[in-house]
């Protein structure tokens, strides 16, 4: 006789199912990490672009946080920020200054802060959760 018996196939299938089920949480966590890092990079690039335009135009530019945060929510990342309509994030042109505050990107198990200082330094840090490559803890 050649081939595998039904019992051998069922055992092989059961072993494969157990291995697949044990890998699912790790896969989900890695997917969330990559998505959060991608969003953080997108925010960082956007804010640096607005800052550069403000310096080049030698004028103040107010950042549209509401529209940009909607795009983050479509990818499953929640955003919170310390800015409001009365104290918006504004880059002040030639002086290279900004309204200080932070933007928090919230995933299921991690949080990243995009911190903007009064001298318009923009940086990322991990405020909650396990470490992420390239992002230091706050």
Number of domains: 1
How far is the N terminus from the C terminus?
65 Å
Order of neighbouring strands in the sheet with most strands: 2-4-5-6
Q: What is the CATH class designation?
A: Alpha Beta
Rg, nearest Å? 22 Å
How is the biggest beta sheet arranged? 4 strands, antiparallel
Structural class: alpha+beta
H-E order: HEHEEEEE
Query: Helix share of residues?
Result: 40-55%
Low-confidence stretches: none
Percent of sequence in beta strands: 15-25%
CATH topology-level fold name? minor pseudopilin epsh fold
Total strands: the figure is: 6
This entry's quaternary arrangement is single chain
The CATH homologous superfamily: minor pseudopilin epsh domain
Q: Number of helix segments?
A: 2
CATH architecture level-2 label: 3-Layer(bab) Sandwich
| Morphology call | rod-shaped
Mean pLDDT: 89
Describe the overall structure.
The chain has 2 helices and 6 strands, in the order αβαβββββ. With 138 residues, it is an alpha+beta fold. The chain has one domain (6-128): 3-Layer(bab) Sandwich (minor pseudopilin epsh fold). A hairpin with a 5-residue loop joins strand 5 (111-116) and strand 6.
